[in-house]
Amino acid sequence: DRFGGAEAAFAVGVLTATLPGMRLFHDGQLEGLTRRRSLHPQSVPDKGPEVYGLDAIGAVRVRYHRLLREVKHPVYHQGKWRAIPLAPPAPIAAYQWSWPQSDGGGARSEHFVVVNLDQAVDGWVKHEYSAGQDDAWCKAKEKSGGKQWGDMEFKFVEGGGICGDGWCCKRRAAEAWFVPWYPKLEWLPPQPWNCYRYGLHQDNAWCKKQEEGRRNNDVRQYKFSGGDGTCGECWCCERTQGEKEEYGWSVIDVPLGIDGEGGFTEVLEQEKADVYHTS
Fold first, then answer.
1. Whole-angstrom Cα distance, residue 139 to residue 214?
2. Quick one: 92 exposed, middle or buried, by C-beta within 10 A (0-12, 13-18, 19+)?
């Protein structure tokens, strides 16, 4: 646990499985081994899984089953990896990258990965009241505080100790999103191209110029199709880029210490074989 324990191990597992390059998994990693296997297993007494240091094996298997299922997606093998800088107040050891991919029809999907390798706690600090501020003010701020990136949020703890001897604590909203050793995957669903009707002073040249200056993160995007059918009979197409949606799982979905259902061994072995085959 000195270096983060099982939570850190899985966060690093997500990192290594979703970065470019060959994806390698150690013997026993997917089963939750906490100690290296003996080179002479015949000499190990038959005393059950605890001999090998199995830790919450069901939960670990579920996590890696989801991770391996995710990295089988074609975007991790055919897409183009790109790093995405995280602006303050993100933790210094938090990293973000994505795998965008476009199909032949111009639709684009993108999978995002965020991993926090910081051991820091949630970042609550004591708020010193100024003129006009008191406990009632702090309680009101807790209920109405913003949750957007960089916003300050407040919590009235009545001496709870999360920020020392303070009763009113505060932190940047981003620190709540990046709990220690927290990996998260999100995905951007592909959006269809629609016909764009030219307005005043707009023509084919205008559409081509919009396409040339397009960036991947533009909310509204244009494409000059020349009538190739991308958006029907129109020559200029547009789409509104979809919002990032949580992919449906994270490290906190399956807490360690909760036994999962059995029967994952064969599935994991097949998942490993598929990953090795496509990496």
1. 45
2. exposed
| Number of residues that this document lists for the chain | 279
Parallel/antiparallel/unpaired status of strands 236-240 and 245-250: unpaired
Spacing of C-alpha 29 from chain mean position: 21
72 and 274 Cβ atoms separated by less than 8 Å: yes
E strands present in 131-172 = 152-156, 168-172
Closest alpha carbon to 183 in 275, 257, 117, 126:
117
Of 163, 161, 141, 166, which is closest to residue 152 (Cα–Cα)?
A: 141
Distance separating alpha carbons of residues 213 and 108, to the nearest angstrom: 17
Q: How many CB atoms are located within 10 Å of the residue 28 CB?
A: 15
The pLDDT profile of the chain, 279 residues, written as one tens digit per residue, is 444 566 677 788 888 888 998 888 877 777 666 666 666 555 544 444 443 444 445 667 777 877 887 888 888 888 889 887 766 556 667 778 888 877 655 556 778 888 877 655 456 788 999 999 999 999 998 887 655 555 678 888 876 677 878 889 887 765 555 555 556 666 555 567 889 989 888 999 999 998 887 665 466 788 899 888 888 888 999 887 544 443 333 333 333 332 333 333 333 444 445 444 444
Q: CB neighbours of 127 closer than 8 A, spacing ≥ 6?
A: 138, 154, 163, 166, 168, 169, 170
